[in-house]
Each structure stands twice: as structure tokens, then as C-alpha cells.
Amino acid sequence: LYEQVDGTVPSIDSAEFHPLDEALDQVELKVAVRTLEGACAQLCTTLAPPGHTAINLVQVYDYSCVRLAVRENITNILMDYPKGLHVNELAKKIKVEPKKLSRIMRLLATRGCYSEVAKDVYANTRLSLVLHSENPVRHMVNLHTESASKGGALIYENLKEPRTAYSYHPDHCPVMVANNKEGITGAFFDWMRQRDSTRESYHRSMQGLSIIMGSSAVLTQFPFNNYSTVVDVGGGIGAFSLPLAKVHKHVKITVHDLPEALTQARSVWARDCPEAIQEHRVEFSELDFFAQMPVAGQDIYYLRNIIHDWPDEESLLILRNVRKAMGPHSRVLIHDYVVRQVNREQAALEASKFGATMAPEPMLPNFGVGNIRMYQQDVTMFIMHNAKERTLPEFLELSDAAGLKLEKIWDLSEACVLEYTAA
Ligand SMILES: C[S@@+](CC[C@H](N)C(=O)[O-])C[C@H]1O[C@@H](n2cnc3c(N)ncnc32)[C@H](O)[C@@H]1O
């Protein structure tokens, strides 16, 4: 696939992106990589002594090392030194002790994030480039290193403390319990909305998540040509709808979100897609999706990474409000992970029910680590919102209760798009 695009295959120390890294539709690549990642990890777990693998699961500091790199803009600094910068010089620039820094850079370079081009001299790689301040993925990295990590450390306590153990209230998620200790209360979105820099980075991180998940594939896989109006419910700054406006110029778009998100959205669109504003192809319209219904009678109501942010009760409120807005021709698209069971019999059932692809034996049927982001993100949703990624039966329970009928599942190899009509 790499060779087909431009005749080259990236190496571990490639210092620039490959054209395929920025492709809108990565479904074919993701299908191949899912098997590659799953098979490599399973082979290692099978053949390495279990103690060795167990310690690899927990002795993980990559996280904190990447945090340093991001906070100190190491990738940006190294952009000026394509042949590399000595760690002593780098240490001076970011004001840290050089011998400690060299150990952190060595660990990161062992992962392929930065390359040691000569002894203690480091340069950027294709992997470290995503940590650049202008790269949206960096904002998702930031969300994890600065917020999710606090909650991740408290999973055990959250499951055992009487106040939180059986609660699905968004205020009781591990991140907010950690924040409570600093006097911050409410749910993650309440907290995030009130802090300008956190909110701006959060909304940019959604553009990052779209890149990570290859979500823009929906623009080529789903037949938008057949539809003329699209409502991006909880659309943020337009991680989905801005590329939609560029690719499908005939579509009229409504972006619904909270006022603070829309303020940021307007300036992002004015910079990155002014033609859509000038041609009146996009409207920004305030909406609290628990209290109000979206603009009525549109062709498509698109909810990406929305339902996964909320426990069942809140998700049902959102979907019922969307249902109220639908006309007879309207469709709802829920774009989220559809979580797979690990058990082979269950996986076979899923395969027969919704055409989910099973990995070939002896691989785990769900592709194991090849799909790890789905399972990690499920735990992230618990940590940050007391919410979850859902299995197909869980989606069906919700959508049945909201009066929606599942028509089709578009499998984009990482997440899926569930297409509904009014029941
Ligand atoms: C995980 S982001 C997804 C953004 C966008 N759909 C995407 O895929 O990039 C969740 C979005 O829900 C919005 N949101 C949260 N609470 C909301 C509410 N009560 N009403 C409307 N939007 C809300 C947030 O502002 C945020 O933009």
C-alpha cells in the first residue's frame, strides 16, 4: 500500500510524513495494520515468558516522557536541527538536567519517537512529528497526559469507594474525583468549558482523534452525494463537518454545539474554510442536546464521538431529541466504536449478525491488540465521563428506546457508522 502511493515504505527513522499518513480514507491500510499489530503482539505474548510480558504491561513511563516532550515543545525545537541536536544543548534550551534528559530521550528513541542520529544527538522522526504544536494529534496526546492520566491512576479506588462504586453519574468519574481534590466539581464538560486553554485544546484534540481513528473515511465510504442537508450534532469545531464542506460542496451543514465551542468553531472555519461561510453552506447554531431538539427535517443527523461520552440515561435523552427533529426521509448516523467480545463463539455471533470481520485463527477473533484503541478508549470514557463505548446489543437497546431502526452498519475498520431511520 505504501509503495502503491509513492513508491516508498517509511523506515523507523523517516523524518517526514508519508502521503498515506494524511490520506482521507485509510480503511484499506487500517485493515492491514489491524492484523499486523494484532499478530505481532500476540506472537510476542505467546513466545515471551509471561513475567517479561507482565512487566512490559505496567512498567510504562513512555507516557510521562512524552508529557515532557510535549510540554517543552521538543519536536518544535528539533525542527530547526534536521541533522540532530546534542542532548546537552537541548537540555540548556528547556532548562533541565542533561543526563536525566538523555535517558528520557533514549527511552523515547527506543520507541521510534525521535532518532539518536549520533551519540546523544537527537532528531525528529515521523512519529515525533505528531507532537508538534501545530499537529492536532498532539492535543489528544495532551488530553491524555494532562487529564486522563489523573483519573487512570484512580480506577481501583473509584470501583471500591461507596460514593462512586455503583454510580454512573458523570460527576463521579475518576478524572472528576481527582479534580474534586483541587476543589473542582461537576462533570468533565462543565470543567472543560470554563477553562479557555483546556477547552481550546480539547476541541482541537477532536481533530486529532479523527486522524487517529481514520474517521474521515466516512466522507468517501458513505454516499453523501445522495443527501443535501447534514446536521453535525455536538460538532465541536468541525473535525467532521469542515472536511465534509471541502469534499462535498453541495451539502448544507448545521453545526450544533454549546456556545463556547461555536465561538472557536467560527474562527477555525473562517481561517480554514472561509468559502463555506461566504457561500452560506454552514450555519453555527447553539444547542444543548439534552434540553433542545436539533434543527428539524434535515437529511442527516450525524453524531460522532457523542453517544460514547454519556451513560445510558443521558444518551437516551440526546437520541430522543434527535428523533423528534427527524422527518420521514431523515437518517441518523452514529459514528463510534462498536465494541467486540473477545470470546470466539461470541465473535462468530457478531460476525453473523452484523458482518463484523473475525481475525483468522490462531489470532484472537477481535484482532487482539490490533483493536486495542477501542478497548483503551472504552476505559478512557469511563475515566473521563463515567460513560462507555458500546457493543451492538447495547446500541440496539438505546436506539430501540429512542424510536430508531438500524438500517446498516458501515464498518470503517476502526470505528463504525450505524445508520438509522425513524422506527
Ligand atoms: C467528544 S466531542 C465530539 C466532537 C465532534 N462530534 C467530533 O467528532 O469531533 C463532544 C462534543 O459534545 C459537545 N457537547 C457536550 N455537551 C453538550 C451539550 N449539552 N449540548 C451540545 N453539545 C455538547 C462538546 O462541546 C463537544 O464538542
TrEMBL record:
Keyword Ion transport on entry: no
GO molecular function: O-methyltransferase activity
PROSITE patterns from the UniProt entry: SAM_OMT_II (PS51683)
SUPFAM superfamilies per UniProt: S-adenosyl-L-methionine-dependent methyltransferases, Winged helix' DNA-binding domain
Keyword Transferase applies: yes
InterPro entries: COMT-like, COMT_C, SAM-dependent_MTases_sf, WH-like_DNA-bd_sf, WH_DNA-bd_sf
A Pfam family annotated for this UniProt entry: Methyltransf_2
Protein name per Swiss-Prot or TrEMBL: O-methyltransferase C-terminal domain-containing protein
Gene3D superfamilies in UniProt: Vaccinia Virus protein VP39 (3.40.50.150), Winged helix-like DNA-binding domain superfamily/Winged helix DNA-binding domain (1.10.10.10)
Swiss-Prot/TrEMBL GO biological process terms: methylation
Entry keyword set: Methyltransferase, S-adenosyl-L-methionine, Signal, Transferase
UniProt domain O-methyltransferase C-terminal: residue ranges: 183-403
Species annotation: Pisolithus microcarpus 441
